[in-house]
Amino acid sequence: MAGERALPPHEVDAIGAPARRALAAAGITTWDAVDAASDRDLLALHGFGPKALRILRASQER
User: Fold this and answer.
1) 3-state class (DSSP) for residue 5
2) C-beta of residue 56 within 8 angstroms of C-beta of residue 50
3) What are the pLDDT digits (tens) for 14-42?
4) How confident is the model at residue 5 (pLDDT cuts 50, 70, 90)?
5) Which of 50, 59, 52, 56 is nearest to 19 (CA)?
6) Which of 33, 56, 57, 61 lies 20 to 30 Å from 45, alpha-carbon distance?
7) Structure confidence at residue 45 (pLDDT)
8) DSSP 9-40
9) How far apart are CA 15 and CA 61, in angstroms?
């Protein structure tokens, strides 16, 4: 299950630090939280852009 992955989404090194901080600040610290968040919600976070979204969603599928 995605929520049981060892590496929390806000620690995915492939995304930039502003995007990682945005996830952590929004409380999106589990893969289940990423699943629950729409792309629109994620893109609304300050510091989280389209590139971070692509990387995060690709990481989520692994």
Assistant:
1) coil
2) no
3) 999 999 999 999 999 888 999 999 999 99
4) low
5) 52
6) 61
7) 98
8) GGG-TTS-HHHHHHHHHTT--SHHHHHHS-HH
9) 15
In one-letter notation, the amino acid at residue 8 is: P
Return the percentage of the chain with pLDDT > 90, whole number: 63
* Residue 2 predicted with pLDDT over 80: no
* Burial category of 55 from C-beta neighbours within 10 Å (exposed 0-12, middle 13-18, buried 19 and up): middle
| Measured distance CA(45)–CA(25) in Å, rounded | 9
pLDDT at 4: 54
Alpha carbon distance 28, 18 (integer Å): 14
